[in-house]
Amino acid sequence: MSDHQGEKVDSTGEWSVIKCSHCKFTHVLPLPSMDDYYRTHFYSSSKPDYIREYTEDREWWNSVYDRIYDCIEFYWCRRRILDMGCGPGFFLARGMQRGWDVTGVEIALEAVKSCQNLGVRCVSSIEEAGGEYGAVSLYEVLEHLPDPELVLRKSRDILISPGILAVTVPNDYNPLQLQLRKHGVRPYWLSPPEHLNYFNEDDLCGLLDRSGFRTVRRLSSFPMEIFLLLGMDYIGNPVVGRQCHQMRIRFESMIGRDLLEAIYVGLGKLHIGREITIIAIKR
Question: Strand (E) positions, 180-260?
Fold first, then answer.
């Protein structure tokens, strides 16, 4: 019998969504292996405009990344970082601008090419990365993995003490999403086989604790669900989705950094925000 058992909380298509008593977080069943999909199809089929839009929004992305680097740099560590699932490499390119020695792990062919164009060292596995690192980043990666704890433990193994881990995941089944469900909105955040795991803050911190990390800081982000509550239905509509994204960028650019941080800290205490970022230290 599979170790993955628990209360069924949702379903979508052929997938069941359970609160797994073994993993202690919510994930889909069955759990597939997706290496070939991510290697050759993820950017071309699922996100054909991703790298182009990323490039257009690079200034904003740098502000997002600066927030993460500021948190990592608050805690002393060797300025050598490994970014697992580094995508097009923009996070690491920003790190190089800040004086970091950077390496990315990525298998998607189009993303690897982007890394090469940016001068970012990119390898295909954590084993190939080699050496010891002062920090590891997992930015919107754990939700894609059939065994996130395994990757976290491998990340811990390559960190020198005191090593820093920065993890960002979607904040799923959050209070605003649950409110939308009450008004008949389908669970649009469920997207297997791309997203296999659905974390809240407490479950993510518990997973990090079991993997050998101590949480030291928790961050939130802009609650994109507000647009749905205001009647801007971006679900399945990339044009409206892009408009909403640009409005978020405008909001964040108009708010001073200190006030923006205070707003997101406050929202985080209410478990509101589209993403969760956890900064943790290797135990």
Answer: 197-198, 213-219
C-beta atoms surrounding 75 within 10 Å: 16
DSSP labels for 138-173? Answer: EES-GGG-S-HHHHHHHHHHHEEEEEEEEEEEE-TT
Look at the block and give the residue holding tokens 């390898």.
123
Residue linked to tokens 């948190």 = 71
224: tokens are 């994109």
Closest listed residue to residue 89, CA positions, set 58, 132, 128, 68: 58
Domains identified in the chain and CATH numbers: 6-282 (3.40.50.150)
Q: Dihedral of the CA atoms 203, 169, 150, 43 (nearest 10)?
A: 150
d(CA 190, CA 204): 17
Spatial CA neighbour of 247 closest among 219, 217, 223, 215: 223
Q: Are 163 and 282 in contact (CB under 8 A)?
A: yes
Task: With beta carbons less than 8 A apart as the criterion, state whether 271 and 200 touch.
Answer: yes
d(CA 8, CA 29): 10
∠ CA 190-191-192, rounded to 5°: 115
* Token pair listed for 162: 């005191």
Can you give the pLDDT of all 283 residues of the chain as single tens digits? 468 999 999 999 999 999 999 999 999 999 887 665 666 556 655 566 778 888 899 999 999 999 999 999 999 889 999 999 999 999 999 999 999 999 999 998 889 999 999 999 999 999 999 889 999 999 999 999 999 999 999 999 999 988 999 999 999 999 999 999 999 999 999 999 899 999 999 999 999 999 999 999 999 999 999 999 999 999 999 999 999 999 999 999 999 889 999 999 999 999 999 999 999 999 9
Helix, strand counts (H, E) of the chain:
12, 11
Give Rg (Cα) of the chain: 18
